[in-house]
Write a structure and sequence with these properties.
Layout (H helix, E strand, L loop, with lengths): L1 E5 L2 H4 L3 H9 L10 H14 L5 E8 L5 E11 L5 E5 L12 E2 L4 H12 L9 E8 L4 H12 L2 E9 L2 E3 L4 H7 L2 H15 L5 E5 L6 H12 L3 H6 L2 H16 L3 E8 L2 E11 L2 E9 L8 H15 L4 E3 L6 H5 L6 E8 L1
Parallel strand pairs: 4-6, 12-13
Antiparallel strand pairs: 1-2, 2-3, 3-4, 3-5, 6-14, 7-14, 8-13, 9-10, 10-11, 11-12
């Protein structure tokens, strides 16, 4: 494999099509690894999560010049104060990260990456600090093996659960997956919304000309929750707005509102990617709790997913109790550290 290092966003643009094509065949195909997402995140460093850093994207090509692997990295002093190479998107707002490589090329690519990082050409890193890698990713055992071969220390730990629902073909089959109490509760909430004293409707934002106004309304709902209000600083709001524009432009934004009459009572900012919905963030009106707007929203979106043939509804990171009431099952994302 021929290794190349790309260190400016401008130099990434010529490989946009190759990057995203490789991702579509990659062992980990998630929206947070799309090139347009990576560049949007990098422009604002995760909504101010990082205030510095140097881009360090390692790409590998075969002897015919075909792109076979991408390690989307940046060099930074990590949260432990150690010079580290981290995955672009780390840590807070990119739920799943990894290298980009086909399963059959994973071991060879990671071997070539490790050889490069052990050379004098690499930056003076003390740690590879990878957050949000799925526990099931083959990157983990391969990295552990390579760390041993290079005399590096390897450590991994569960970072967060990431519940999801594998969806059946029809709504009745989905309801049958739930336990009796949750099934009755969801059916009652949906029925109540369908027979509410004013019409309850759901719509998806598709027009880029109104996206900013719709995002204003989304953030107004989101900030009614105290914890989300603290999270949604001005830089983070700008970052989430930029990601929404990027996702809509490239066809994978799924921004949904539920209205009671003309009043927006709940909203969810999702990604519609690789035949599943990825639930990114949400908000609802505290004045309309009699409608259970959050439950109606999630239930209606899951119903939409089933009707439109989506294979899964991914709640992503976090173990909030309501996720499990919808039948979600846990997976886990890891923090992996390789140190020398």
């Amino acid at each position: 494999m021929q290794i190349e290092v790309i260190q400016t966003p401008e130099d990434l643009l010529p490989i946009t099509a190759e990057w995203n094509e490789l991702l579509s065949q990659s062992a980990t195909n998630v929206p947070f690894l799309r090139q347009e997402y990576a560049l949007t995140w990098w422009a604002q460093k995760g909504g101010g999560e990082w205030d510095a850093g140097e881009l360090y994207v390692v790409v590998a090509r075969d002897d015919e010049g075909k792109l076979v692997g991408i390690a989307p990295l940046f060099f930074i002093e990590n949260l432990d104060g150690v010079p580290a190479l981290m995955l672009i998107g780390s840590i807070e707002i990119s739920d799943f990260l990894d290298v980009i490589v086909k399963p059959e090329d994973q071991e060879a690519f990671l071997g070539a990456l490790a050889a490069h990082l052990s050379s004098a050409a690499a930056p003076a890193w003390k740690a590879l600090d990878f957050y949000n890698v799925l526990k099931t990713s083959e990157t983990l055992p391969i990295l552990e093996k390579l760390a041993g071969e290079h005399g590096w220390a390897y450590q991994q730990e569960v970072y967060k659960p990431a519940p999801y629902i594998a969806l059946p073909a029809d709504w009745d089959s989905y309801l049958a997956m739930l336990d009796k109490r949750d099934r009755k509760k969801l059916s009652r909430v949906i029925r109540m919304a369908d027979h509410y004293h004013i019409p309850v409707s759901m719509y998806t934002v598709e027009d880029p000309n109104i996206l900013d106004a719709e995002l204003d309304d989304f953030f107004a709902l989101m900030t009614q929750d105290a914890e989300k209000n603290a999270f949604l600083t001005d830089p983070m709001q700008a970052q989430m707005r930029a990601i929404a524009h990027t996702a809509l432009e490239h066809g994978w934004l799924h921004l949904v509102f539920v209205q009671a009459g003309n009043k927006k009572v709940a909203a969810q900012y999702d990604f519609d990617y690789d035949n599943r919905i990825w639930a990114y963030n949400s908000g609802f009106s505290l004045e309309d709790m009699n409608l259970s707007p959050g439950l109606v929203l999630s239930g209606k979106i899951i119903q939409w997913c089933i009707e439109n043939g989506r294979s899964a509804f991914d709640f992503m990171r976090g173990d909030e109790e309501y996720k499990y009431s919808f039948g979600a099952e846990d997976r886990y994302v890891m923090r992996v550290q390789v140190t020398r």
